[in-house]
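Researcher: I'd like a structural prediction for the single chain below. Treat it as a standalone chain; there are no partners to consider.
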Amino acid sequence: MTNYISKSINYAEYCNLLETLMANGKTTGHDQSESYINYAKLNLARMRRLNKTLILTEDIKNELQKITKKYIWLVITEGWCGDAAQNIPVFYYIEKENPNIELRLILRDENLELMDRYLTNGGRSIPKLICLEKDSTASTGYIEKFVWGPRPVAVQNLTQQLLQQNVTKDEKSLAIQHWYNNDKTLTLQNEFLQLIKTLN
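Model: Treating it as a single chain, here is the predicted structure.
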């Protein structure tokens, strides 16, 4: 895992990468089609909004203060991914609450061998967050504490329902976006509140 961590970037670098690519009409990953560029443009706007408006609950803030061990949260992502845009800003806000959590991001398409260790129902769904505890006694230097992703359970269930209904890709995207807008990150924060409790 050390080599992936060394290749990863922090949140500010990730945002800068997405902004720079978009300024040149590009996104991350192999697919540079018009549809993917449009997804990336929408998702960048969502991230910008969340970066300014996101508020963590007092419950999660209080639980975060109890963390005393060092953790790396390694996230597999891409700039065109809608779920990544909705969820990664929350990870960043969590990181800001406790210096013992270090958020690192790594691109899926450049690291498929890592992605393939964390498939969802056989697919390369992102984002995937791997929580690693720094431990010098472990052979790799890290102990895997939990894995989260690619989206909150409620959204994952909604996604499965929509797939069974054979809706179009655009209809699915709109329904999921509507869910995220109404939820205002609270479901994700509650999921991470429970995960954070396992670290204390």
